[in-house]
Amino acid sequence: MNLLKNIKKQNIKEAQTNVKLFLVAFVCAIACWLIIAMTKYPFDTKIVTNIPVSFDTTGTEAAENGLKVLNPDTARVNVKFDCSRTDSNKLDGSSIRAYLDFDSVTAPGTRPLTVKVEGPNGATMSNVRITPATITVELDQFSHKEFALEAKIPKITPADGKSLNNDEITCSPAMISVTGPSSQLARIAKCYAVCDKSEVLDSTKTLNSERFELLYDDGTPVDLSEKSHIKIENSSIVSIYVPVLTLKTVHLKPQFIGAPSSFDTRCLDYTITPETVTIAAKTSDTNLTNPLQFKIELSALDIDYSQDIDLNSLLAANNLMNISDIATFNFKLNSDGLASKEIALTKDDINLLNQPSDDYNYEIIRDRLVVKLVGPSDVIENITAKDLSAVVDLLGADVSMNQFQYDVTISCNTHNNVWAVGNSKVTVKKTLKEGVTTQANGSSVNTTSTN
Questions:
Q1: Most buried among 54, 390, 417, 439, using CB within 10 Å?
Q2: What is the pLDDT of residues 120-149, one digit of tens each?
C-alpha cells in the first residue's frame, strides 16, 4: 500500500516537471521566432481605414490669402503603408493625421488637392498609398459686409380704424455686419429682423426681434445654422419701431383757383370718382380734415373737361398718407346744358390797373384779344363784349423790360355763371414820359423846365 502511494507521488512530480519544461520551451520558441522575424522581416504592411481629413488652412499660403474651405464639410481616406514592427502598434486611426496640401493655393476657386498623412512623433511610414489620393474642394475668401436691416412683422396687425405706417417702421440698430465667403456675401439682397409675435396694435409700439432672416438676390433664404459659413456678427436683439396711424374716410372737394369775386362756383356741376378716400395722418390726427380739398384752375374748365389727379402727391403736400387702394381720382365737369363762345376784345376793352409810379407810360399794344367763354347755353348766346370786364393788374408785376406779356383777368359783369377758359395774355409796352430822358447808366432825368 505504501509502495503504491510512493509511485503515485513520483508520477505527479514528474508530470509537473514536464509541464514546466514545456512552458519554458514554448516561451523560448516564441522569443526565437520574434528574434528571427525582427531580424529577417523588420517591416510590416498595414492598412488603416476611415481616417478623417483635416481642412484647416492655418499656416498655409491659402490662409495668408484669406481663403477657407467651403465644400466639402468632411472627408475620410484609407491609408496603406509599410512601417517597422515596433511602430505598427502606434499607427492607427486615432494617431494618423490626414490633411490637404494648401501651400500652392493662392486664389478662390474649386480644385483637387493632394491628401497627405503623418504619424505620431517617432513613427515612420513608407510606401504610403492614400485612397482617395486627392479631394476636390471649393475655397473662397472670407470677409465681412454691412447690410441695411429691415423689419418683418408678419403676425402684427392693426386694430379696427388703425393702420400700420409701413413706410416708417424702423430697426435699431439699422445695420448689421455679416461675415462669410465673399461670393455669398455679394449675393445677399435683403436682411430682416423678424418678430414672430402675434399681436393687434391700437397704438405705436416698439417690439423686439426674435431671429434674423437673410435672402439671396434670387429670393432663396440664407442658411444661418451652425454649419453655415455665413455668420451675423452683432446678433443681439433688435428693437423694431412700429408706428400706428388713425384712419379716416373723407370726401374730396375742389377748390377753384382764379375765379373772379363775382363768379359763383356753386353753379359748376362736376363729378368726382371716387367721392371718398381713406387717409391717415403721418404726425398729428388734426390734419385729418373733412373734406379733403384739391385745386382746380377755373380757366381750365372747358367743355367736357376731365382730369386724373395724383392722390399720393396731394396727400404728401399735406403730410398725409394714402390708405386707399387707388393712386388717382378723377374730376370731370358735367357739360350738359353748357355752351362756349368766342368774343373778340379790343385794347380799349381792357383796363390797365395799378401802373407803377415811375417815369414811364404803360400801354397795351395788342389790338385784338379773342376770349373763349363757357356758361349755360341760354346765357352764352346773348353775351357780348359789353358784358365782360377785362383787366390787366400790374400790381407786383416785373416791369424791368420795356415790353412784356401779362395775364388778362376776364369776368362777366352781368352773369355770375359765365367764365373764361384758356390763358389770355396781352403785350404791355412802357415808354418814357414826355420830358424825361435816360442817362448812360439807365437812370432817368426830368428835363422839363419852368420859366
A1: 390
A2: 887 888 999 999 999 999 999 988 999 999
Whether 350 and 364 have beta carbons less than 8 Å apart is answered as yes
Q: Residue 41 has what DSSP assignment? A: -
Give the dihedral sign, CA 277/282/285/289: negative
Quick: pLDDT tens for 398-429: 999 999 999 999 999 999 999 999 989 999 99
Pairing of strands 403-407, 360-364: unpaired
DSSP per-residue string spanning 329-352: EEEEE--TTEEEEEEEEEGGGEEE
How many Å apart are CA 57 and CA 138, to the nearest integer? 13
Which pLDDT score is estimated for 450?
A: 43
Contact 54, 100 (CB under 8 A): yes
Coil vs helix vs strand at 71: strand
Sheet holding 350-353, edge to edge: 350-353, 388-393, 409-412
Evaluate the omega torsion of the peptide bond into residue 291 and state whether it is cis, within 30 degrees of 0: yes
Give the residue from 293, 329, 328, 325 showing the smallest Cα distance to 163.
325
Residues 315 and 279: their CA atoms lie apart, in Å, by 8
Query: Cα separations (Å) of 14 from 4, 404, 409, 431?
Result: 16, 150, 150, 160
Contact between 339 and 374 under an 8 Å Cβ cutoff? The reply is: yes
Cell numbers standing for residue 255: 377748390
Residue 154 preceded by cis peptide, ω within 30? no
Q: Are 417 and 375 in contact (CB under 8 A)?
A: yes
Residues of the chain with pLDDT under 70: 1-22, 24-42, 283-286, 438-451
Give the C-alpha distances (Å, rounded to integers) separating 156 from 161, 166, 196, 323: 15, 11, 8, 17
Architecture of the CATH domain 338-438: Beta Complex (2.170)
What's the pTM value of the predicted model, to 2 decimals? 0.58
CATH class label, 43-140: mainly beta
Q: Please report where in the chains the cell 436691416 appears, as a residue.
A: 149
Instruction: Tell me how far apart the alpha carbons of residues 282 and 18 are, in angstroms, rounded to a whole number.
Output: 111
CA distance 132 to 224: 31
Query: In this structure, which long-range contacts are made by residues 35-42, counting pairs with CB atoms below 8 Å and at least 24 apart in sequence?
Result: 37/85, 38/85, 41/85, 42/84, 42/85
Q: What CATH number is given for 247-333 in this structure?
A: 2.170.120.40
